[in-house]
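Take a look at the protein record below and flag anything odd:
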Amino acid sequence: MGLCAHSRRTAQARPSGLCDSFLRTHGKAILACDYFTVDTVFLKRLYVLFFLELASRRIVFTACGEHPGDGWAVQQARNLAWELQEAEIKPRFLIHDRDSNFPAAFDAVFRAEGLEVIRTPVRAPDANARCERWISSARRECLDWLLVLGRRHLEAVLAEYVDHYNGFRPHRSLELRPPRAPTADPAVVSGPVVRRTRVNGLINEYSRLAA
């Protein structure tokens, strides 16, 4: 219900199922982004900026920094814009909250690419609910179990977790498929199950080998 929840009042007034129907129809054209923080063992606070495609729940970009000022945020926006062009992904909307770490120049990068930027209402976390859900998953399944040493360590951990999340982690809302679900191969449906560990054994992935 993320995009439809422009406010708690309007969200409650909408017919049941309307938001789900809207996202099924338009979700591939919508990106959402947010920040969260991670503290290192040396008491340094790092900021993580990420972008999520609403329809698939796929994480399309992450970046870590110590000082998420105007220049840093704008550079990350440009980096994502370049990646979207190379991947031929053409979203129409970008959702984010009213955090001061999203300056006007940040929005200008995306408007120049033809996106409409939608700022969520004040004190309405439900308006960007899928970003909030991903932050919770990343903390609960990965970051809360680690001692982060610094920015490079966090970048490496997040890269591995995002690869797991996009390619292997099942989602109930996606019929237990990952966001980047591979094409089913009948040859390996009945093969032996193998386990692969990620993030130094913190996460397990299971797949089948060809018989």
Confidence is low (pLDDT under 50) at residues 1-18.
